[in-house]
Amino acid sequence: MRVSEFWRLMDDEFSAGYSRVLARDLVLKGVGGNTAADALGAGFDPREIWLAVCEMQDVPFARRLGRDIPLKG
């Protein structure tokens, strides 16, 4: 997963404004007790961070892959 995909998933699930608050303030056990922002800066895999956020925020499994994006063409 790319960092841009991480942010798309965060924004889709939590809204653009609140996703930044969560990334800055929510401490995630799944990435060594870092916040998402700190974990990204430390080089953790964005997918690992996203799944840690999902776990802490009880995001249903059905939404952990994000919303469907229609194909262009």
From TrEMBL:
Entry keyword annotation includes Kinase: yes
GO molecular function, one term: kinase activity
This protein's UniProt keywords: Kinase, Transferase
Pfam families according to UniProt: DUF3046
The organism's place on the tree of life at top rank: Bacteria
Record's protein name: Histidine kinase
Species the sequence originates in: Arthrobacter alpinus
